[in-house]
Design brief:
InterPro entries: DENR/SUI1_TIF, SUI1, SUI1_arc_bac, SUI1_dom_sf. This is Translation initiation factor. Keywords: Initiation factor, Protein biosynthesis, Translation regulation. With about 120 residues, this protein is α+β, with helices and mostly antiparallel strands. The protein has a domain of about 80 residues: Translation Initiation Factor Eif1 (2-Layer Sandwich), CATH 3.30.780. A hairpin with a 2-residue loop joins strand 3 and strand 4.
C-alpha cells in the first residue's frame, strides 16, 4: 500500500498495457531490441562530414553510419578524439569531433581498416 507507479520497479511506462498480475515472479516483457552486433571494420560504411548547424558558428567533424554497440562506438570516438587532441561525443551511431578534422579522421579510419568516405560539401 502507498506505493506509486514509479516505486514498483523498472520503468512503469513500459508496462502501460499490463493492468495487474498476481504472480510474484511475473516479468514484464518489453519490446526493446538488443544492441546490434558490431560489424567488422572492413564492413563498416562510415561517412565523414563537416557540420556547423546548431553550433553557434563553430565547426565539428561528424562521423555517421557506425553499426554496432554503444561501447564500440565510444571506444572508436575515444581513439579519434585522442589522436586529434580535441573533445567530442558519441551517441546514436554518430561521433562528433570538435573542429574541422575531416582529413585526419579519414586517415585514422582508413588506417584502422574502416571503409570511410567524405560526405557533404
Amino acid at each position: 500500500m502507498g506505493k506509486n507507479k514509479k516505486d514498483s520497479g523498472g520503468d512503469w511506462k513500459d508496462r502501460l498495457g499490463v493492468m495487474f498480475s498476481t504472480d510474484p515472479d511475473f516479468n514484464y516483457d518489453s519490446d526493446k531490441e538488443d544492441e546490434e552486433d558490431t560489424l567488422p571494420t572492413n564492413k563498416q560504411d562510415l561517412r565523414v562530414m563537416l557540420d556547423k548547424k546548431n553550433r553557434r558558428g563553430k565547426s565539428a567533424t561528424l562521423v555517421t553510419g557506425f553499426v554496432g554497440s554503444d561501447d564500440d562506438l565510444k571506444d572508436l570516438a575515444k581513439t579519434l578524439k585522442s589522436k586529434c587532441g580535441v573533445g567530442g561525443s558519441a551517441k546514436d551511431g554518430e561521433i562528433i569531433i570538435q573542429g574541422d578534422f575531416r582529413d585526419k579522421v579519414m586517415e585514422l579510419l582508413k588506417a584502422a581498416g574502416y571503409k570511410a568516405k567524405k560526405a557533404g560539401g
